[in-house]
């Protein structure tokens, strides 16, 4: 029946998602384990406050009987005093319980946020190629918030109402088992209907979250590429795109609101029907002499509390489901294993910096059928400069990504001092290999902090030395606040060439064994580029340098030049050898010289 008429409850989906829900709930409970004592206190307080709630209906029933039997007025005074004391105790317990619960849940919330963040940071770079930043951020912020809001507010109430339902039923049983049985038989009605609408609501709320994440994506992409958007004057286009995503979210929100309203409405209607039936049956029991009038009054008061507590339980159920839905998305990230082999343990005191690519073949995970490097070999020797040149798209930057272990080659191997790259500790490896890219990213901190980012314990003298070598010291001291000048978000407050030189200083301060310059001086004028290179060549007796350059004049002095085209080595040798050979390199040099002469009007 369910499978046929209620698709959301169909067996496959229900079984699978229930297992998943159960697993997520177990995980969440697992995070609560360290706070077991606090939870024990919370549960005790819930028990005390729920028991206290029983006082008013109990004494109201007793008073009704006393009125009927014309008892002494002292009994009333006594009953009211006891009732007030119990009610105050119940309220205080509830307050303390809420306080402990919410503080504990905030602790767990921040802990889980930290877990997601750490796990995302450990993912392989290919993960970031495909995942959208908006989605990642939304899992850390929106999803964890949804989870913890639903859990901290609703789960505590859920627990509280659950306990209340339990005690109310015990008291009801004591008064009349017949009426209690009658009430219990009516319960499935107020259970099943909200369960169906709750399922529907849950699936909609997952869709709303996903749709919000898509809208976030557009906003983040637009703000982070604001200059590009402005220079294409595409503000309207971007606004349209964002509005479209918001419209999608809005239409899902409408459905979600309708589903929520429907689920609460069905709850109220069914509990109303139950109340009327109980009054009718209870009246007959009183006339039959089964129960006293006072008992019926107490029972009806208990029952009112009971069904409203069940109602509340049911209406909170979707929220808990929502929390579980959000936690599933969170745990998907927490559990994700990075798809590169884990790093090794090698961290030798002395490293020569002899690096070899041996017959490496590599395709990006997103395009597994298109090899970007084919049977590629390269050797970097300490104290030597090796240059990679060739047309754009040839695979030069890919070599750098492999060197940084962002990806794993499918064939061949990369060796550092004779050992596979992945047998070294990741942190060690990155402290020995420094890469400066064409568009380095600076942080929105001072120039000093940006440079010292390259080595935690660097002194100011180290910083000055590195800056001088990067030909950056002079312009930095000329900045309004010198080394304390703010670099701006993504280094937006310094020019492209200045950014590159700060990035070179940041790389040099770590005294790397291997220095990779991926077109890192492209924004400098020829004179500055020449100065930087000279300084670097002086330092290169310490390290091996891999230089990627489009401007061939920059690599003339390299010890070895490799011309890479379509992922294959077309030719290699020194500048003089390659010129003499008269191949692709020589032609490119010729072309660039002609263009240079034309630009400077010498041709
Ligand atoms: P070069 O640095 O020589 O200009 P790249 O190494 O950047 O060349 O690129 C080589 C090829 O790899 C290009 O065809 C490029 O489109 C592709 N490529 C680069 N990065 C990625 C990526 N993250 N995912 C898929 N393909 C990529």
What does this structure look like?
With 603 residues, this protein is α/β, with parallel strands linked by helices. It has 2 domains: 27-335, ABC transporter transmembrane region fold (Up-down Bundle); 366-600, Rossmann fold (3-Layer(aba) Sandwich), CATH 3.40.50. The protein is built from 20 helices and 10 strands. The protein has a 6-stranded mixed beta sheet, sandwiched between helices. Strands 2-1-4-5 form a 4-stranded antiparallel beta sheet, covered by helices on one side. Helix 3 (36-53) runs antiparallel to helix 5 (73-121), helix 4 runs antiparallel to helix 11 and helix 19 (575-581) crosses helix 20. The protein starts with a helix and ends with a helix. Residues 1-15 have low confidence and may be disordered. The structure holds adenosine-5'-diphosphate. Adenosine-5'-diphosphate binds at residues 129, 364, 366-367, 372, 392-398. Adenosine-5'-diphosphate is lined by residues 129, 364, 366-367, 372, 392-398.
């Amino acid at each position: 029946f369910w499978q046929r008429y209620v698709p959301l409850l169909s067996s496959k989906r229900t079984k699978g998602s229930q297992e998943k829900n159960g697993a997520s709930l177990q995980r969440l409970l697992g995070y609560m384990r360290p706070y077991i004592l606090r939870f024990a206190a919370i549960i005790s307080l819930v028990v005390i406050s729920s028991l206290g709630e029983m006082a008013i209906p109990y004494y109201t029933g007793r008073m009704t009987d006393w009125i009927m039997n014309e008892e002494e007025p002292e009994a009333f005074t006594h009953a009211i005093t006891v009732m007030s004391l119990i009610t105050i105790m119940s309220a205080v317990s509830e307050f303390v319980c809420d306080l402990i619960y919410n503080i504990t849940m905030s602790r767990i919330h921040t802990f889980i946020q930290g877990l997601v963040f750490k796990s995302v940071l450990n993912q392989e770079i290919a993960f970031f190629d495909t995942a959208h930043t908006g989605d990642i951020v939304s899992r850390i912020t929106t999803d964890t918030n949804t989870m913890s809001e639903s859990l901290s507010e609703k789960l505590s109430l859920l627990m509280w109402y659950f306990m209340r339902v339990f005690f109310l039923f015990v008291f009801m049983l004591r008064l009349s088992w017949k009426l209690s049985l009658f009430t219990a038989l009516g319960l499935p009605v107020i259970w099943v209907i909200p369960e169906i609408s709750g399922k529907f609501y849950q699936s909609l709320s997952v869709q709303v979250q996903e749709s919000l994440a898509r809208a976030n994506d557009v906003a983040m992409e637009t703000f982070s590429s604001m200059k590009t958007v402005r220079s294409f004057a595409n503000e309207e286009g971007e606004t349209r795109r964002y509005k479209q995503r918001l419209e999608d979210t809005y239409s899902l929100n409408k459905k979600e609101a309708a589903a929520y309203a429907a689920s609460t409405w069905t709850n109220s209607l069914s509990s109303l029907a139950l109340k009327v039936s109980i009054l009718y049956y209870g009246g007959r029991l009183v006339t039959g002499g089964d129960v006293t009038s006072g008992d019926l009054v107490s029972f009806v008061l208990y029952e009112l509390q009971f069904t409203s507590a069940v109602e509340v339980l049911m209406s909170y159920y979707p929220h808990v489901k929502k929390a579980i839905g959000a936690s599933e998305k969170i745990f998907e990230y927490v559990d994700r294993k990075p798809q590169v082999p884990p790093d090794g343990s090698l961290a030798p005191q002395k490293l020569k910096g002899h690096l070899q690519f041996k017959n490496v073949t590599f395709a990006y995970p997103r395009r597994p059928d298109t090899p970007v490097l084919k049977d590629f070999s390269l050797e970097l020797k300490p104290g030597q400069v090796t240059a990679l040149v060739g047309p754009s798209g040839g695979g030069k930057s890919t070599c750098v990504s492999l060197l940084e272990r962002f990806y794993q080659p499918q064939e061949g191997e990369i060796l550092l001092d004779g050992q596979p790259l992945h047998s070294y500790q990741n942190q060690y490896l990155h402290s020995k290999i420094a890469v400066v890219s064409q568009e380095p990213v600076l942080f929105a901190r001072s120039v000093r902090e940006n440079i010292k980012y390259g080595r935690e314990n660097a002194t100011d003298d180290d910083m000055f030395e590195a800056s001088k070598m990067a030909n950056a010291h002079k312009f930095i001291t000329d900045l309004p606040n010198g080394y304390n000048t703010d670099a701006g978000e993504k280094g937006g407050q310094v020019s492209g060439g200045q950014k590159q030189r700060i990035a070179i200083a940041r790389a040099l301060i770590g005294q790397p064994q291997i220095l990779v310059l991926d077109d890192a001086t492209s924004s400098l004028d020829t004179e500055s580029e020449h100065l930087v290179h000279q300084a670097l060549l002086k330092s290169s007796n310490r390290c091996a340098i891999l230089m990627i350059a489009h401007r061939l004049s920059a690599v003339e002095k390299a010890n070895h030049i490799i011309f890479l085209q379509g992922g294959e080595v077309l030719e290699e040798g020194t500048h003089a050898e390659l010129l003499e050979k008269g191949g692709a390199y020589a032609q490119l040099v010729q072309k660039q010289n002609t263009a240079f002469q034309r630009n400077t009007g010498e041709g």
